Amino acid sequence: MKPSQLIRRGLLLLGTVFVLFCAWQALRPLGKPSADGRITIRFGHWQLEPGIRTAFEQLIRDYEALHPNIRVEQITVPGRMYRQWGSTQLIGGTAPDLVQIGLGVQGGFFYDYFQPITAEINLPNPYNAGTPLEGVPWRNTFKDGMVTSYDPETFECYGASLFAATIRIYCNMDLLRKVTGSDQLPVTFREFQEFCALVHDYAQSTGEHIEPIAGSSLTGILMLDDLFRSQMQDLTSRLNPTMDLPMDNDEFYLQYLLGRWTLKDPALQSAAELMREAGALLTPGFTQIDHDQAHFRFVQGRAVMLMGFSLQATGILDQINFPIQVIRSPQPDVDNPRFGPQMRARSSENGLRTYGGFALTRSSQHPAEALDFLRFITSAESCRKFCEISRCLPSIIGVESPDIMQAFMPDTHGYPPGPTFYISPDTRALILNSQYLLFGPEASPARWLARLSQELPSTMRRDLQRTTDARAASVQRIEAAIAAGQRLLADHPDDDILSRKYQSQLETQNEMEATVHYTRLRLKQAERQTGRGPN
């Protein structure tokens, strides 16, 4: 037999074995008692940061000590595979009892594959007994009020989370002193520019390959978005002079389509100039660099700074042998003659908001036990222990952040940041696909803004239409649930939980329906004014 035939047969055999193994994994019974008679519940997530898995293992041991009849298994899945893994598991009915929401496992999966816990979050968490949170409704024990667990399309709450994060710049203090001769960290954007110039001069004079900040595609998005928002503060105040509050993205887009602001506005001109100058400080070709590469350069001492999330802290601290400090991303100050006029003050950060909650799957064989475990890990004591081990920021009220993580806590001083182009999918794609016109020797703010002026109206309109259509569909889907709730409430008028859920659904539906009509009306108004319809 020829070698090529052997290879083909070997690959065929390997493929057959793999398919059979996957079929066995999909069809094998789940959730049944193990050989020792204990019930097994499982939870899956993508958080592979060092410390998080260790923290969960400790919580598992604590829970199993309280419940000897239950065994808990932790399943970790790389983020790049999470959407495929999650969708396959959910559709195949083989998903763990609890699945982390996010990275593509969200939205459309909720109604069919996850069990809402809307009623349960209004009850106290029994694992908070003996603490200041005893008797407090579960949802009110979270610093964000569990707002990120609410799904506006189904009017239900799904999952509870231990995860909260902020964005910071990590600084190698030894390298900073070596390069600049000082331990002074930049605070304003002008100081950041001066710092980058010092690092470049040092690298050129010594021949050492050291960069000011390890640039990557993620660094670019985080830093440029932060700077863009800073330049939108005065514009949004001018657009909304009667309310000194931040403007949401939908209203910002509508104001553009209605001609209330244009790309010729000084705010947009200033933002483009500021983003170009910031891009010149990052690693050449940063838009094509993976963040893992930037992380590696930083821990190897080849970059003075790294921009990333607070969840990276444990991984960085475990890999380095030099002291670090963290700072917020530098912004222009209001006294800056070029960029300050578009600002009211340094942008403040919102309070901690959770993300990536663990949702109860409909295929769970032991939903009561899984929900009980979820309550346990989101209790005050479990959150405290979880944060100490993982160095995560606390999501539960009254839990203090570990001392080493105090610098990562949200900075709420300043003025709310303006809206952004980086959230809505079509507009975000346009910004990312056209940013080559903003960076590089032949690029310029004028070229970038000219490209945006051609495509921004249609992309904004598509984003708004998509959001509006989704809201309208949600309103229609929930009508049956509201009617059922009304009937149940008529039969059980003293059921407080049912009453609160019904009122919440009704109020949210009314608000969403009003938003749908308002957005459609404004879109039609914009079409009449500009003569450009949907495209």
Note down, in words, how this protein is organized.
With 535 residues, this protein is of the alpha/beta class. It folds into three domains: 30-163 and 353-392, D-Maltodextrin-Binding Protein, domain 2; 167-248 and 260-348 and 411-419, 3-Layer(aba) Sandwich (D-Maltodextrin-Binding Protein, domain 2); 424-535. Helices cover 48% and strands 10% of the residues. The chain has helices spanning 3-27, 52-66, 79-92, 109-113, 173-180, 189-206, 217-230, 233-239, 249-257, 266-279, 291-299, 313-319, 367-377, 380-390, 425-434, 445-491, 496-530, and strands at 39-45, 70-76, 98-100, 114-115, 150-151, 156-157, 163-164, 167-172, 211-213, 303-309, 324-327, 354-355, 358-361. The strands form four sheets. It has a five-stranded mixed beta sheet, with helices on both faces. The protein has a four-stranded mixed beta sheet with strand order 9-10-8-11. Helix 2 (52-66) links the parallel strand 1 and strand 2 (70-76). Helix 7 (217-230) runs antiparallel to helix 10 (266-279). The longest helix is centred in the C-terminal third of the chain and has 47 residues, at 445-491.
